[in-house]
Design a protein that fits this description.
Helix content is 39%, strand content 16%. With 251 residues, it is of the alpha/beta class.
């Protein structure tokens, strides 16, 4: 084990986008460390080719993780879910979508930004009072594409660049409330989001050739970094954007 089993005992955590992929791995890890964890998101939709959201089979969650329905595009829905907590120590924002090849269409562009960026802000703003009461923390999900562009995904790239700047800005704004705000920047992680790329021999080869560690990351490896950011070991960290990418950004 990387961490003590009871490291987060007594803590309460909310993971948006917690019903699949990296979000599920983070929700499971926080629960395994003793936090009462709620994974929130929308029921699994029918997903169009090239478009991936934050949803998959709910049984990927550990039995101890609670589930809640949440649409981060709705301020009312966000306030409903967060209003159901009496205490909240940890918020992890993983809700997000990508629509490869379609994001030059303005309506798709707007939808991706509303979920990935505006949704993150809605959750942070709504959770602030509860997190202040517990001196809690926020972990947002940025991306490699917070640092460079993606021609097929202008909305995703813009939204993740926005998440990085939002994280830094809220770290400053929330510091007086003793709330730490950091972000993960995952690289190429083996999830349903990247399955099409994993299955494309040419694309996969290019990704692995550039990645110094020469493999795909696993959701659990991102979850371990998220868990670290939620512990006292990261007590003097705020405003950090932490790559979890096998060295892709430095290659």
């Amino acid at each position: 084990m990387t961490f003590k089993d009871n490291l987060l005992e007594g803590k309460v955590a909310l993971v948006t986008g917690g019903l699949s992929g990296i979000g599920t791995a983070i929700a499971n890890r926080l629960a395994q460390l003793g936090a009462r964890t709620v994974a929130a998101g929308l029921p699994p939709p029918s997903v169009a080719p090239g478009t991936h959201g934050t949803h998959n089979a709910p049984d990927a969650l550990d039995p101890g993780v609670q589930r809640a329905t949440l649409d981060v595009r709705s301020t009312e829905d966000v306030e409903r879910v967060i209003g159901g907590f009496e205490r909240l120590d940890i918020v992890v924002n993983c809700a997000g979508v990508i629509s490869r090849g379609e994001e030059h269409q303005i309506e798709v562009f707007e939808r991706v930004l509303d979920i990935n960026l505006n949704g993150t802000m809605r959750v942070c703003a709504s959770a602030r009072a509860l997190l202040k009461a517990s001196s809690g923390c926020i972990v947002n999900t940025a991306s490699m594409l917070s640092f460079f562009g993606g021609g097929l995904v202008p909305a995703y790239s813009a939204s993740k660049g926005g998440v990085a700047q939002l994280t830094r800005s809220l770290a400053i704004a929330y510091a007086s409330d003793n709330i730490r705000v950091n972000a993960l920047a995952p690289g190429w992680i083996a999830t349903p989001l990247t399955q099409a790329l994993q299955d494309d021999e040419g694309r996969a080869q290019g990704i692995l050739e550039r990645t110094p560690m020469k493999r795909w990351g696993q959701p659990e490896e991102v979850a371990n970094v998220a868990a670290f950011l939620c512990t006292p070991a990261a007590s003097f960290m705020t405003g950090a954007i932490v790559p979890v990418d096998g060295g892709y950004l430095c290659a």
